[in-house]
Amino acid sequence: MSSVPGIRREERWPTAAFLVWQIILQALVIARYFPVFSSAEGNYRKTFIDGFHISGFDPLTYCVVSSWATAFDVNRHPLLAFFCYPLYVLNRALMELTGINCAQFVVGAVLLVCSVWAFVLMFRICKELIGTSTFEAATLSAMLFSFAHVMLAAVCPDHFVMSLFALLLTLYVSGKMMRNGVPMRAWQTVALFLLTAGISLNNGLKIILAALFVNGKRFFRLKFILPAVILPAIGLALFGEWEHETFVAESVRVAKIKRSLVVRAERDSLRKMFNDTTSIANDSARTAAFTRFWRAHRQKQLKLRAMQPDRANAGEPISRKRFLNWTDMTTSRTETLKENFFGESLQLHRRYLLGDVMRNRPVIVCYDSVLNYIVEALLVMLFVLGAWMGRRNRLMQTALSFLALDVLLHLVFGFGINEVYIMTAHWAYVIPLGMAFILPRLAGWPRIVMRTLLAALTLWLAIWNGTLLIEYLYQ
């Protein structure tokens, strides 16, 4: 590790140990799916979507790297497919050389780099900006990646660990600026915004929050807010609309036409069958009778469709219109907080292990052991205590504003609430970051006890979640 550019002396051993752990987990996931995913031919999307099942993570990155397309939702991930284009070029070259699809290795390398540097950034935030010791910083950084759906995000071919890296980079850069009294420049804000919002649009708002906390009143000056916030936001929105119209709108229109043609063909077939078997001779009466039969048939079909997991677990949105159809007003917030937001996000449930709510998992699953609830309560209490101790620190305030945004989106409006744990990497860093503010307030035995407790919690989470992940992959 001593030869790796940017890795400091005190970071080498913790980072080396973390790198080994990540390589092991990456190898286990790749090996599990390699026999099927290594084929250089066939329908890539069908192969990956049908074959990859770890919680609700989507293997769309494998699809994009294998055969480039804007497979991601362009409204939520406007630049992600374009960020992946160089990976696609690399993978196609490797496919020509080796005869196999190397998407797993190419994407795995990116996930590994993002994970390692997210670990390093978390380490630096704790040690350099908050004042913990090297051991404490390493423990809290390891705790972040021992959380269930951060551990998974680091090895699953989705975008979440990329977002984690971008958000921790933002917090680290912002923290240094606040400590040194240096304002965030417009170009820096734009660069962070395009990187973060390009990966996941809602996280772009966090860059604006970070700039607000760093710059204070200067944020509202027109010479900053116009080039740093307003113009990039408008530009990205316009790009998203262009991307939708160019790559998505036609396929949506074609899909609607196909669905209507299928329904029409079914209706025509049933009408012929009805006319051949009915004893009603009068044309108008026969037509009226078939209309009643068809309506009852369609209602039955729609009810059966509504019972499918992807619909039954989706909840009732505010509206079926674009963007608002992602909301959910009916899923229980209290149960979600206990079992998913602070539950499945941090500790996997053994029942319905790593199931997908769109396939085979209920939205709410309870733990079999009270020990899991004790660990959950300890994590929440320590986080709340640390957040209170660091409440006057602008770095802590910035991180809490990030968390508040996710709470607003997921728990208030219900965006993705039925599988809210999938978004853990977008906010879970706030928990160890909050805990870090406890440690500098302590000395002597109290600090040793707190350090030991944090290490024990980290070890428990790593063993519990790691064991269940391996059990799931090779059951």
UniProtKB/TrEMBL annotation:
This protein's record includes keyword Cell membrane: no
Superkingdom, natural source: Bacteria
InterPro entries from the UniProt entry: DUF6080 (IPR045726)
Signal peptide positions (record): none
UniProt keyword annotation of Nucleotide-binding present: no
Pfam families per record: DUF6080
Residue spans crossing the bilayer: 12-34, 103-123, 160-178, 190-214, 370-389, 395-413, 420-440, 452-474
Record-given protein name: Glycosyltransferase RgtA/B/C/D-like domain-containing protein
Source species: Prevotella micans F0438
